[in-house]
Design brief:
With 460 residues, this protein is mostly helical. The protein has 20 helices and 4 strands. 55% of the residues are buried.
């Protein structure tokens, strides 16, 4: 029980940033009449917590798996920046698309279609997902820690102002402290590392060492907190919020809808979320030891149902698609193996409703230390890949490489799925490729054609 509770707290701390980030992103696109930007963000923070709690409760009690769920990064950005701000689609219509996606997920999950499709993913791709997610986590974590930054020529570089950036220095100290605790086999090593880094960060704040990221290196960091504590300018007060303007707003979104444009938006939400969730469940289950000899997760429909319910509820009450979080791997590394871990995560989301967001007390760079630690540990999963067989090495290698460099679990899986039948056929083993695997490869080609050719913009 103690291990599961520590694992749940660890998972919550590593994914708690969404309580602040999701309202900040969606708040740019959702404009509630008669409400200020701060009030809208308060409402969005509440519905973020509610949708995350509902989905994770289902994960705990129905699926009995240690996975945390919440509105997903990437999908919320597509919702805000592409669908609403770029295409000019009303935010109510975008919510309607999320609800439709959730209902489709519910139906496909109940009849077993999602499990069937996921089981069609080639074995080498399944075994590569864990390592790919590891590299993905490493980039996210190191960037939030200000160890790496963007560069116009090389795309990524070492922080050019590392020695004068207190946030980066404190993050690295916290990282090596956490590695030391893990190596010493200290129980709760990751959460102790997060707590220690948080304390050091607040102490540095108190002494006046609060860097402004824009002053360190203009425009090179994705996360630019005003101080080490990572607080935003929005002041969140005690609970007692009126979220009725968001609840049911999706119903207004069905009026005056262009059917083709709406269908393409639902298709994009659906496709990315489908394989993001599949990849996360597979990758985290691999390090937990849940996968069978074929790389499949037994009774995967149960955690998939949590994702479907969370997405549907989220769209109804006013937030974007809910998905399983790769940060769940931090709790799994702490020993979480049952729904008790998820229950702790869900209860902490509920507790955060008391003061929104309670989770923001932990600075982003401190919580993301856990991602780098877990990333290193997840790389051991590549030993399961048959590297001497090109029909395994090529799709597995592409999955591992494409995932972090495109910042998308789904795109990494797509690269592996598309390449697998091609390499198999080239080796003269086309009979070993299932019809469903060819269909999956073709579906991904179609997806990329729709997503990147401007068809959505032209249709809308």
């Amino acid at each position: 029980m103690r291990t599961e509770i520590v694992a749940g707290i660890t998972t919550f701390l590593t994914m708690s940033y969404i309580v602040v980030v999701n309202p900040a992103i969606l708040g740019l696109a959702i404009d509630v009449n008669g409400r200020t930007a701060a009030e809208t963000q308060q409402m969005l923070a509440v519905v973020t917590l509610i949708s995350a709690a509902v989905a994770t409760f289902v994960m705990a009690f129905h699926a009995n798996r240690p996975f945390g769920q919440a509105p997903g990064l990437g999908l919320n950005a597509f919702f805000a920046f592409t669908v609403v701000l770029t295409l000019g689609i009303p935010w109510e219509t975008a919510l309607a698309a999320v609800v439709v996606e959730g209902v489709i997920f519910l139906f496909l999950t109940v009849i077993g279609a999602r499990e069937y499709v996921i089981n069609m993913v080639p074995e080498p791709v399944k075994f590569a997902v864990g390592a790919g997610i590891g590299l993905f986590l490493a980039i996210i974590g190191l960037q939030a820690m200000h160890v790496i930054a963007s560069d116009p020529a090389t795309f990524v570089q070492f922080n050019p102002a590392f020695a004068t950036d207190p946030l980066a220095i404190i993050s690295v100290i916290g990282l090596f402290l956490t590695f030391a605790l893990v190596a010493a086999d200290v129980s709760g090593a990751i959460i102790l590392g997060i707590i220690a880094t948080t304390i050091i960060s607040y102490a540095a704040d108190a002494m006046g060492y609060s860097p402004h990221a824009s002053e360190v290196a203009e425009g090179v960091f994705l996360y630019t907190p005003a101080s080490l504590s990572g607080q935003t300018d929005i002041v969140y007060s005690l609970a007692g919020y009126d979220i009725t303007p968001l609840i049911g707003a999706f119903m207004r979104g069905f009026s005056n809808v262009d059917s083709m444009g709406f269908a393409l938006i639902v298709f994009t939400f659906f496709f990315v979320d489908f394989f993001d969730t599949a990849g996360t469940l597979t990758g985290v289950s691999q390090i937990a030891g849940f996968l069978d000899e074929d790389g499949n997760l037994p009774e995967i429909n149960k955690p998939l149902l949590a994702d479907a319910i969370g997405t549907t509820v989220g769209g109804i009450i006013g937030t974007s698609t809910v998905t399983t979080y790769i940060e769940s791997s931090s709790g799994v590394e702490e020993g979480g193996r049952t729904g008790m871990t998820a229950l702790v995560v869900a209860l902490l989301f509920v507790a955060s409703l008391a003061v929104v967001p309670l989770a923001a007390a932990v600075p982003l760079h401190a919580s993301h230390i856990a991602l780098v630690v877990v990333a290193v540990l997840m790389l051991r999963n590549i030993v399961d890949i048959q590297w001497d067989d090109l029909s395994h090495a090529v799709p597995a290698g592409l999955t591992v490489l494409v995932m972090p460099f495109t910042f998308s679990i789904a795109y990494g899986i797509a690269a592996g799925i598309i390449s697998y039948p091609v390499v198999k056929a080239a080796q003269g083993e086309w009979r070993d490729v299932q019809v469903g695997q060819w269909v999956l490869a073709g579906a991904f080609v179609l997806y990329f054609a729709v997503r990147t050719s401007g068809i959505i913009q032209a249709t809308v």
